[in-house]
């Protein structure tokens, strides 16, 4: 979206933000507008350059010092999505985010099946609600590779608690448990073969 299109949606987006996020400071509204704007890089510095009157320090403070719990927001969005699209299946898979540097939490040279190679990226485990035409993310969790969790100092510098490494299939089960706590019911659950080869994962799905 360009700036003109974002401005045209100002009223609708403000109503959505108020409903889902509640009271949000001005810098938070600016950050969300930055995410909506066109641009390959969605980190703070390039977003601040694209925003009229964008202030990098203000946006950085919002991202680094926000005390907000993301789960209530995710729940609101997941409930809205499932009402709108009536999903036929939930899909568990990995989602990769290519990165240029090494500072972002969880960045490492990792394999991505979608592109068939190893590259510098973050990887998250996700649960998507899917129809024959629309995939919508319901919940997700960043997967920390061993090279991060084996370096406690690096984790602490990035604000990551010690010893948070979990296998992807365990993360997936945790995501499903959270969705169940939100009273969302899966019509059918399918997963990438990397999850299916785990016997504990398959057994847990049946419980």
What key phrases describe this protein's structure?
207 residues; 11 helices
Descriptive report:
The protein has 207 residues and is an alpha+beta fold. It has two domains: 3-65, no CATH class; 70-206, no CATH class. The chain is built from eleven helices and five strands; from the N terminus they run ααααααββββαααβαα. Strands 1, 2, 3, 4 and 5 form a five-stranded mixed beta sheet that branches. Helix 3 (26-36) crosses helix 5 and helix 4 (44-50) crosses helix 5. The mean pLDDT is 85.
Residues in β-strands, percent: 15-25%
Task: Give average pLDDT, whole number.
Answer: 85
Number of helices: 11
Shape call: globular
- Major sheet description: 5 strands, mixed
Number of strands: 5
Instruction: Give the termini separation.
Output: 44 Å
How are helices and strands ordered from N to C? HHHHHHEEEEHHHEHH
Structural domain tally: 2
Parts with pLDDT < 50 across at least 5 consecutive residues: none
What fraction, in percent, of the residue positions are helical?
40-55%
Structural class assignment: alpha+beta
Radius of gyration: 18 Å
Please provide a brief summary of the model.
With 207 residues, this protein is an alpha+beta fold.
Secondary structure elements and their pairing?
Blueprint (H helix, E strand, L loop, with lengths): L2 H6 L1 H12 L4 H11 L7 H7 L5 H10 L4 H16 L3 E10 L9 E5 L4 E14 L4 E9 L2 H4 L2 H6 L10 H14 L7 E3 L1 H4 L2 H8 L1
Parallel strand pairs: 1-5
Antiparallel strand pairs: 1-3, 2-3, 3-4
């Amino acid at each position: 979206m360009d700036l003109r299109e974002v401005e045209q949606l100002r009223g609708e987006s403000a109503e959505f933000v108020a409903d889902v996020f509640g009271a949000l400071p001005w810098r938070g509204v600016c950050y969300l507008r930055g995410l909506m704007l066109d641009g390959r890089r969605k980190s703070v510095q390039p977003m601040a350059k694209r925003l009229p009157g964008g202030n990098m320090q203000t946006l950085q403070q919002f991202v680094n010092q926000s005390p907000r719990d993301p789960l209530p927001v995710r729940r609101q969005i997941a409930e809205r999505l499932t009402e709108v699209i009536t999903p036929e299946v939930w899909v568990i898979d990995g989602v990769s985010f290519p990165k240029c540097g090494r500072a972002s939490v969880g960045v490492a040279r990792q394999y991505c099946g979608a592109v068939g190679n190893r590259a510098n990226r973050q990887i998250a485990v996700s649960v998507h609600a899917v129809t024959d035409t629309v995939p919508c993310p319901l919940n997700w969790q960043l997967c920390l590779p061993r090279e991060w969790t084996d370096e406690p100092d690096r984790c602490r510098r990035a604000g990551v608690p010690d010893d948070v490494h979990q296998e992807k299939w365990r993360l997936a089960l945790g995501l499903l448990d959270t969705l169940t706590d939100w009273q969302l019911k899966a019509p059918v659950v399918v997963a990438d073969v990397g999850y299916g080869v785990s016997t504990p994962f398959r057994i847990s799905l049946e419980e």
